[in-house]
Specification:
This protein has about 260 residues and is an alpha/beta fold. The protein is about 35% helix and about 25% strand. The protein is built from seven helices and ten strands. The protein has a six-stranded mixed beta sheet, sandwiched between helices. The mean pLDDT is about 95. It binds adenosine-5'-diphosphate and magnesium ion (MG). Adenosine-5'-diphosphate (ADP) binds next to strand 2 and helix 1.
Length: about 260
């Protein structure tokens, strides 16, 4: 293989003092690939994204972005942290505008004009002047995603973006994310503990063990795009879900 991965981790590990959080791991993501990381709660998934986004430093190993060291790659990622981190005093349009402000060094006013253009695609047009506390969980997640997309990066780090939602809203937003992703096909790492979500959205899935996280399995998702909910009922998806559950159990030391 001569193709250079968009994101490449080699011998990466992370400890906080005595606490080993990420075991030594190698992981690659191709350009335009949608990769999910599935793992039990507390295993180190968010820590991995903190390292990629430069908030934390790895203890060992190397990260390259399109072949160049991460620390020489500027800030290549738009990161949606696990808590949606909306600013409570900013309206919807100004929270989304923050994405443009961060990326483009625009004034608040110029960013607001840009954000207004983005809102319809996210179903947020009518909520542009609402404040976060007035929104449902699903709406908040849309705002956080819109703000992430507004940064205009071709690499996204999404940390359990649909974590706190009811099943129906979650499915709706998952399908909608795939649609948004299909437009420009950014490179994505999605963190989740939802097997179904990983199958529905990904090209490829890594399964992490309990802390310290190790890669216990890696699966290609053999489904066409665009994805539909019906595909999940098919034989291939059903088998994959079983394989993923099994890998999660092995990784957590349970005997299934
Ligand atoms: N800054 C930190 N200092 C010390 N321990 C941390 C820090 N960040 C995370 N941890 C610990 O690392 C482990 C993994 O956390 P996290 O990456 O958030 O897990 P996950 O996202 O998989 O649920 C947890 O035990 C957590 O308490
Ligand atoms: Mg987390």
């Amino acid at each position: 293989m001569t193709k250079i991965p968009a994101i490449s981790l080699r011998r990466l590990s992370k400890s906080f003092g005595d606490l080993d959080v990420l075991g030594v791991m190698d992981l690659d993501v191709g350009r335009g690939e949608f990769v999910s990381i599935l793992g039990p709660s507390g295993c180190g998934k968010s820590t991995l994204l903190s390292i990629l986004s430069g908030i934390e430093e790895a203890t060992t190993g190397e990260i390259t972005i399109h072949g160049a060291p991460l620390n020489q790659s500027g800030q290549p990622f738009a990161w949606m942290p696990q808590n949606d981190a909306l600013l409570p005093w900013r309206t919807v349009v100004d929270n989304v505008g923050l994405g443009y402000q961060v990326a483009g060094r625009l004034s608040k006013r110029a960013a607001r004009d840009q954000a207004r253009l983005l809102l319809p695609a996210f179903g947020l047009e009518e909520f542009s002047r609402a404040l976060p506390y007035q929104l449902s969980g699903g709406m908040r997640q849309r705002v956080a995603l819109a703000r992430t997309i507004a940064q205009g990066r071709d690499m996204l780090l999404l940390d359990e973006p649909f974590g706190a939602l009811d099943a129906i809203t979650r499915t709706e937003l998952q399908l909608w994310l795939e649609q948004i992703w299909g437009v420009d096909r950014p490179t994505v790492i999605l963190i989740t503990h939802d097997v179904r979500e990983a199958v529905l959205l990904s090209d490829r899935i890594y399964v992490f063990s309990d802390r310290p996280a190790q890669i216990v399995a890696e699966f290609e998702v053999p489904l066409d795009r665009p994805r539909t909910i019906e595909m999940l009922a098919g034989a291939q998806a059903t088998q994959l879900e079983l394989d993923l559950l099994r890998a999660l159990h092995v990784g957590s030391g349970d005997t299934p």
